[in-house]
Amino acid sequence: MNSQYRVVVIGGGVVGASVLYHLAKFGWTDVVMLERRRLASGSSWHAAGGIHALNADPNMASLQAYTIDLLSEIEKESGQNIGLHMTGGLTLAGTPERWEWLQANYRIFQSIGIDDCELLSPEEAQRRCPIMSTDGVLGAMWADREGYIDTTGTVQAYATAAKKRGAEYYEETKVEELIQTDDGWQVITDKGTITCEHVVNAAGLWAKQVGRMAGVELPVSPLKHHYLITDTVPEVAEAEFEMPMTVDLEGFTYMRQDQKGVLVGIYEVDHEHWAMDGAPWNYGEELFQEQLDRIENELTLGFERYPSIQNVGIKTWVNGAFTFAPDGNPLVGPVPGKRGYWSACAVMAGFLQGGGVGKTLAEWMIHGEPEADAWPMDVARFGDFAQNKRYIRETTGQFYSRRFVMTYPNEQLPAGRPLKMAPAHDAMTDAGCKWGVSWDLEVPLYFAPKGFEETPTLKRSNAHDIVADECKVIREGVGLMDISGFSRFEVSGPNAEVWLDKVMASKLPAPGRAKLAPMLGENGRLKGDLTVLNWGDGTWWIMGSYYLRAWHMRWFDDHMIDGVNVQDLGEEYCGFAVVGPKSQAVVEKLAEQDISGLKFMGCRDFDIGLVRARVARMSVTGEKGYEINCRYGDHIKLRRMLLEAGADEGIRECGFNAMLSTRLEKSFGIWSAEFTQLYTPGMTGMDRWIDWDKNFVGKEAAVAERDGNGPAQIQVTLEVDADDADASGYEPVWAGGERVGFVTSGGYGHYTGKSLAMALVNRDKAAPGTELSVHVVGVEMPARVVAPSPYDPQGKAMRG
Ligand SMILES: Cc1cc2nc3c(=O)[nH]c(=O)nc-3n(C[C@H](O)[C@H](O)[C@H](O)COP(=O)(O)OP(=O)(O)OC[C@H]3O[C@@H](n4cnc5c(N)ncnc54)[C@H](O)[C@@H]3O)c2cc1C
């Protein structure tokens, strides 16, 4: 072992070994992995080794598809047998809603390029898995690339393949302390000290402690998990083919063949956390006693699904632990505020996600950006609030116990909520507000009559008409909307303007003006769909999506220069938007200064009644509107005053669902849908805001796109002939049977009375009037490209 390396990877489980392999593969060979015991001494040794292509999150499904394709490659490269059994797999649907969901997902997988799936009748599913009872099964999805592997063999294969490419790894070497230096890290081990530029925390069950060694509190916890392996099952032994990996979602179990018996794993509704502060250091290759009382119900369902296992013995019980982040996705990437400290932990399914995690992290370290959109697993998607132990317990527990439970797009889950509430929260609840959550903050969805409960559904819900009324108020009268759920950063200091001019690709606004500002990565892809406000007093604001606060702050810090101070105002400022043709009349009643001169995209400080406010004349709804930003302590008063002042105009409170419907009618894109790190200015129309005459981050790549052949796909607005459901995102778009794009977001345009979607489609299918089709909840519906902004295309209303 040398005393210096470029990278030290801590942990020799499947994730650490995959990181090591990918670093070496992409050209960094001065890298070492340290394992305190033997390879695969954490969760990895006792995993069930199942590999599934399918995941409800399309980004995670892509990650899994990459990993599955990689497995045979590393087997070949390393010469290490990984016991790969590509049996194919079944996912069963046991309720009509689930069957509908599976059919919808089948189409979404097509959109992301997972084409080796098919939908099956219960009879056909049973033919492929003859030991299964079809009781209650309404249909199934088959995927070719599913099966299982030998877990320790796989970890060994990654490590051996990495070594063949020049990387090193050492077993029986425990990292005990980490010390940050000016140019990297000192890694103190029980075998000596190593200095390095980068440290990767791939410590699995011990990730919490290895985080704390660097002063990092990661939102991760282990939970326990059972599977059993049966003795020989005669029907399995006699079958001429292997049983497929079978997931019974309504039964909470997965099953695969294990020699001549089967392995049945259980996602436990009555879940149990373990060692929330990290596994004990003396914990090794041990298991917990099985806890049958906790899993009785799921076990019974499993034995009913596979009746033949009722007559055979159980050879092995495994009750082990593995780790989860609050949303179940891995925690990957550069940890904010800790230069050279990288996270590769909380990987719930290391054997089907580990390859993708290793690739993503290695690209990130070497090139500064991963190829894929890493947002869903980015360690910076959580803020400090997620370090709270109870928050971690509630959210990880909820994710685990609902792993196989269907979550509807309009469903609100309770874990870790309510946490942060804007001051007027309770008054708004009394007024009927139904709440959603963005990051840690409760955000208003809509205002309903007393006693109203929204029914979870894949289609239009019973809140449809309520939201329609709110949209009408916004378009014809005046609505009041709590906009605490926007992010606000203040930029100040002598070099504030210079810095903003460099990180934003657009022209900067003049004093007293606001401007839409795309922010690009060095690779020319989007990093933000922001609004920059120039208050004219030397301070500037950047406004954007609230849930991106830590992510954007990391970006700002990484691109910081002297003489600039960027402050996240998310704990200090909140506010209300007054929107609609009568908005001016309401705000005018309260403004102590003349507000009639504040033009569209103007911004200025005003006294709104008793509140000192920073006001901007803009609105995401495409209507005339005023965003009134106030200090947290003024929120209640501001709301009261605006409601009183607006009473004569019929002011009504509205929520984000109406905002989403109205923005769709204006073809205004939003982050995580129309705009992501994967898309470019040319694809999304963001190029119209770029100032090509100046220098900005990502200019070279943006110019190359502008002067090249143009993007293959561009953003369009679609009108869909849907009746009781709307597109939501990732549904395929077809032209005469050929897949020509996919939906980025969709919904009902209540005021225009149209089902609308935004989509990325091939350029030759982007002209208004082009007839296409879209799958909506699994059913193909005619659709056509329409000119952008079906409502008020000239933008008269918002400028008015
Ligand atoms: C019962 C069960 C069934 C499962 N089934 C599946 C499945 O079918 N498919 C699937 O994909 N996943 C499955 N999993 C999950 C899978 O096991 C984990 O996702 C995976 O093992 C995580 O790998 P890891 O490398 O992140 O962590 P670990 O395997 O925990 O590895 C971390 C390693 O880091 C080492 N380490 C920690 N601290 C230090 C230190 N300070 N110095 C040096 N070394 C250190 C540890 O000794 C350990 O070897 C299952 C898990 C369980 C419990």
Protein traits:
800 residues, alpha+beta, 8-stranded mixed sheet, 20 helices, 26% helix
Give a structural overview:
This protein is of the alpha+beta class and 800 residues long. Helices cover 26% and strands 28% of the residues. Strands 1, 2, 8, 9, 10, 11, 17 and 18 form an 8-stranded mixed sheet that branches. Strands 5-6-4-13-14-15-12-16 form an 8-stranded mixed sheet. The protein has a 6-stranded mixed sheet with strand order 28-29-30-27-21-31, sandwiched between helices. It starts with a strand and ends with a helix. The model has no long low-confidence stretch (mean pLDDT 97). The structure holds flavin-adenine dinucleotide.
What is the fold's blueprint, element by element?
Layout: E1 4-10, H1 14-25, E2 31-34, E3 50-51, H2 58-78, E4 89-93, H3 96-111, E5 117-120, H4 122-128, E6 139-143, E7 147-148, H5 151-164, E8 168-170, E9 175-181, E10 184-189, E11 192-201, H6 207-212, E12 221-230, H7 234-238, E13 245-248, E14 253-258, E15 261-266, H8 292-305, E16 314-324, E17 331-334, E18 341-345, H9 350-367, H10 389-401, H11 425-430, E19 433-438, E20 441-447, H12 464-476, E21 479-482, E22 486-492, H13 496-503, E23 513-520, E24 526-534, E25 540-545, H14 549-558, E26 565-568, E27 573-579, H15 583-590, E28 603-608, E29 611-616, E30 625-631, H16 635-646, E31 652-654, H17 656-665, H18 681-684, H19 699-707, E32 713-720, E33 732-735, E34 738-749, E35 754-762, E36 771-776, E37 779-786, H20 796-799
Parallel strand pairs: 1-2, 1-11, 2-8, 4-13, 11-18, 21-31
Antiparallel strand pairs: 3-7, 4-6, 5-6, 9-10, 10-11, 12-15, 12-16, 13-14, 14-15, 17-18, 19-20, 21-27, 22-25, 22-26, 23-24, 24-25, 27-30, 28-29, 29-30, 32-35, 32-37, 33-34, 33-36, 34-35, 36-37
The chain binds flavin-adenine dinucleotide (FAD).
